[in-house]
């Protein structure tokens, strides 16, 4: 712990991190009457919190009781239910249900786009729906419209925001109450008092190689969010004795990875647009499947985009190898011409515009980022697969397409389109995702708990830093929903906490 009784500046509430969770906390604290400072280590110009890489979806319960039951069923799958306070689950359901109205109150816009949770075999999965934020006028940056609306609202309220300010450590008194933050700003050390509380909203550790090796169950994992997310909040919380939870989980996705683009993380693929696996019946689909390193198909491709990484990361214990790292997306010319393989709704090739990818994928084929060959056997050779195995896999897949029945994996009939239009293509895929979940444990009031089993006075958290989600992720937009809900709670609870003596 770092003790300090001398401060250079003083506020009621200090929020560390200026993404969706941080902006939500700042707005809520300000509207609760607090004097608020938000600090973020990124520069003001072209700042890129994780939220800017998101597609702008957020989960909304349409039935609070059902949503709580759905989340409880998710925890039960991995034996996690006993570790989660029922009050936290209930608060999540109640507060995420408020998000559309609250976002509208802040000048944002949203509309329902999908029904139901991702895990359709679990109880009450139909109790949630997915909304998507819509562009709102006045936003200073591009990206996820939920974030841009809240960022604009924070600015119009006149909340003090200091960019280029790195939080070095939390300050406490002798009793362990968090009293402020020590910052590094323009080469200077600045101690800032937080008379009522500090809110940690600094995101995950997606771009810290050491923390990923330490906590994630497989390596490598390539995330597609902000390279500024290097686990600062994890370190700050651990230094004051916070209990960490969900450090080994993340909402997964399959991603390409090509450092030659200039972006160090993952590149999420598009399974929805351009006739992808998840397109609805009646769409003009293209064929394709996922194969392991030998050329074997290994999964039911449509749906489950946030759990498929668990299959990909599986180890062959006999061979002491990961046969699906990388995996391969195998497709033909029909898919190639339908549009970019990468998602343009989210990630670095989305609105943030960090990576350019051609509409017809030809530039990437020329660079050999996408493999191409005139025959299936030749494609296997350029990918390092066994030609006989891949040839048998394609033949079996095409037979399923002809019969309309995928006897091995149960893929929906309308997605069974044969591979019959050469040349053939393959893109290497890796475990990835938008964010890590790990960080300090929080309760229903967004208070951070210590390893001793009690709240740390003056310390709150929100968002993906210490997310309440465990092994399973409820549906697309679960993180943005949690960021808004618990950012709002953290800001309010910090602002209304009895102030320390100044």
Write a structural description.
With 502 residues, the chain is an alpha/beta fold. It has 2 domains: 2-251 and 434-496, 3-Layer(bba) Sandwich (FAD/NAD(P)-binding domain), CATH 3.50.50; 252-433, Succinate dehydrogenase/fumarate reductase flavoprotein, catalytic domain (Flavocytochrome C3, Chain A, domain 1, Alpha-Beta Complex), CATH 3.90.700.10. It is built from 12 helices and 21 strands. The strands form 4 sheets. Strands 1, 2, 3, 7, 8, 9, 10, 20 and 21 form a 9-stranded mixed sheet that branches. Strands 11, 13, 14, 15, 16, 17 and 18 form a 7-stranded mixed sheet that branches. The chain is elongated, with a radius of gyration of 23 Å.
Which fold name corresponds to the CATH topology of the largest domain? Answer: FAD/NAD(P)-binding domain
Number of strands: 21
Low-confidence stretches: none
CATH architecture title of the largest domain: 3-Layer(bba) Sandwich
What is the number of domains? 2
Distance between the termini: 20 Å
The number of helical elements comes to 12
